[in-house]
Amino acid sequence: MTTERERIPLPVTGGLLDANGGTREALLEDASADLSDGIAYRGGAVERAMFALPFVTSMTMISFVLFWGARVSPFLTVLFVCGYVSYGWVKGLHSGFSALAFGIPFLHAYKAADWHKLGNDATQRAPVRDRFFGGVGRAYKETGPALVGDAEHTWRSGIDGEMKRGLTAKFNDIVHICVIPTYKEPLGTLRKTVGTLAAQTCAKERLIVVLATESRDSEAPGKVAELIDEFGSGLLGLRYTKHVLAPGEAVGKSSNCAWSVRCVKREYVEKRGLAPEQIMLTVCDADTYFDPQFMDCLAYNHVQNPKPYNATYQASETFFPNIWNVPIIIRIKAVIDSVGFLGQLASPFSHPFPFAIYSQSLRTSMECGGWDVDIIPEDWHHYLKCWFKKDGDFRVVPIFMVMGNDAIEERNWNEAIKARYIQAKRHAWGAIDLSYIVMNYLEKSDRVSFWRTTKLYMHAAEHHISWTLFWFTCMLGGLCSTWANPVLETYPFGIGLRMMTVIVFIPMSFACWFIVICEFYIRLFIIHDREHFECNTAPMWWQLMSQCQWFLMPLADMMFGSFAGLEAQFHMAIKPSMKYEVSAKVAKKKALIVEDASVPDSPSMYDRGTNGSANTAFNGKL
Predict the structure, then answer these.
(1) Is the pLDDT confidence value at 567 over 80?
(2) Is residue 372 part of a domain?
(3) What residues make up the domain containing 264?
């Protein structure tokens, strides 16, 4: 039931919000019955065995390098260690070079473009870039090819009742709905995020913000009321949903998103009559800082996409906004991840996955069954669900605009490092989706290509298994395995495995230089004028001296990569369930800190009457 506290009136702004006249309550509490709550994991011996496979694979490779490999074959051991180290610096060089050579020019082009103007003039050249060095769609060049299947991608607008054909008509008919899952987030954090949305170039005409709250958060309605008072008049709409955790659901972003999107469909499609094709959904974290042109850029990319309903759109995410407020070991990982994301989006040879902030058409969400409710790492999982629902014809389309998320910041270094480790475990829990890939392929082997599925699996395994093993292989295997295997002291070539590992590791320094140059360039020339990006507050002498942080890269990789990943895989193997806790978060440098808040255990995927879930995995911020 809706309490009086939750009956927040919306300001009368005219247009779509007031289609039924008068003011409307901010709470969306009716959910569409068409989008049922999906369950990803169903149990069974094969699925349970697949949960254990990442841990078994990791331990087999670690034990091979440290103990029994040299006893079987010193040659194979040296070959494996040196090959694995070489693989690491090749991937590092690839990401760093792609970010520097392709990503940064794309960021410049996207920032300089006037996307609203481009959306209203199809004859202009646009800086739209795909991951294959060229433009996409007819809007790229005046003499370019016609948009494939344009007749299939028209819709009848729910606003004016007219059929929308062509770039300009579609562009101006798109309604953006941004869903922000939140649980006990500081008001200051939400204010900054909603503020960057209210600053969008299309905010008042075409942007609705939906705060997806949890019923356990009694303070949420009050925060929503304050945000409506402050930003309501600058947006097409500011609404909120209240998710009640149901049996079988996992506490977290995915179950909250599932409910919120169902409420959005009920309100704006079934009640207001909008076409699903004209609604673009964007899902983001509570501490997301948008480029002012992001929504217009997203609409432009979407309406000229030859396959607009077979795509998820991903911006270039960074952790630069508070980069100088976090411990150095967290900073180095934030820098590597930020530049690495850009490199993956820009490279034609990588397979990018969505991360935290992503967008897709509401029609796509409806066709794919919405978000599953027993999931923690919802971004990758939802992409995989869409991939199989579309029989493998689904991809990530890059939006080369910089998004900002805060790096983990706490009261002191110890708490910050602990919180970052918890977050790393939560990210590593995504390895459970390797079983999801296998199980879905077994169900759809007649419709999905074996080779495409294998490629998808290998890319996912590369993230969740290969990088987990890199520190163990390089540091322990290359430098320490000689203690357990004296034969490797001089094998090969009389110099030993330890020296061979050091020699092979040298090219990694070039990858580090690529990353350093990219980081400085993005901070100084791309996001220097962005609101809430305090990434250039440190004096230049300190920014230069702090590059000694790269000596801590092995330690950061050990803590937030190898150890966190291995612990996640271990829990996955023995019992894929754990209590979910929300960690403290700093809203501003001198702002209030929200204390840890425990939440109930989520039901298990095997026995709906017991506690725990395959993905209510780890302590971490929602």
Answers:
(1) yes
(2) yes
(3) 4-41+108-413
